[in-house]
Specification:
Helix 1 packs across helix 4. The protein has an 8-stranded mixed β-sheet with strand order 3-2-1-4-5-6-7-8, sandwiched between helices. It has a two-stranded antiparallel sheet with strand order 9-10. The radius of gyration is 21 Å and the shape is globular. The protein is 35% helix and 11% strand. The chain is α/β, with parallel strands linked by helices.
Amino acid sequence: MGFQIKKAMVIGSGVMGGGIAGHLANAGIPVCLVDIVPFKLTPAEEAKGLTLKSPVVRNRIVNQGVDFLKKSKPPGLFSPTRMELISVGNMEDNFDWIKEADWIIEVVVENLKIKHEVMAKIEAARKPGSIVSTNTSGLPIGQIAEGRSDEFKAHFLGTHFFNPARYLKLLEIIPTPETDPELTAFMMQFGERRLGKTMVLCKDTPNFIANRVAGITGTSAINYVLQNDLTVEEVDAVTGPLIGHPKTATFRLQDLVGLDIASHVANNLYPAIPNDPFREAIQGPVKELTGKMVEKGWLGNKAKQGFYKKIKPGGEKGLPDPGPEDPGIPAPTEAEYPLGETGQGHRIPAGSSKIHRPTG
């Protein structure tokens, strides 16, 4: 059968979902962006007398995603006018928009149970023949489609974009044995010609290709830092363009991806590769370090602090100060490395996963 994509729906309005919706709009494709309805009011909403039935509350999560897209740097949209192609709603009041979508992209949290629930909801509402894909960073594509009909599975595959969706060229296509080969061929062509991507066809293996490599090399690099008394800036200086990698290098890449997302990817990968001799890097000191950072909300760029922190508008970044009352994270007694590009550097102590407060 022939395939076409004249309209799309993106389910999940986080950094990745909003970015994908933005890039579809960049390509001239009308797209519906939806997310869940909040479960509770914020203090500000309560003060205004709003309820969980108020439209502004029901669309709060998706509107936050849209605001992030509008303010993202570098810009996720070719032009602010591209927002005219994005319709915004929620998964309870506006899910019937799915009936008009030729391509439905799931971009929700990396949790198999939640993805199963979303896929069941999609199958019950989509029009026959519409394309359904998941943007999972590494969960098995076949498992995400478990319990769905043969017709659904024939129109289902993985489409793994990378953040930021407008700028990173790679788009991995991951079919399952049940995916219609014509659909796979169509998506490979569509991604290249319409979305401007460099297409890579992957097997449905743990974390596919890019994240399988990055999951090991990234955690190995961070473990090396923790064990050898190096600074974040020193490592980024030698693991970026100097060796043919992007300028995000090691730690800026973690901040860009999001520490929470990176942790999910690593935690999902470890049990899936029992015979991989390099998998222990995932369980090394880096796991404790990133775990503490996620607990504190230091999620990276989207939280304005991770391994780097925004210290002033338009300013450079430095490591966030954990504060004097942070148990188990001692304050340094002296400046631990010369002031560099940030003017507020930090060193992670050797053999430890604790973060020192910035000095200088």
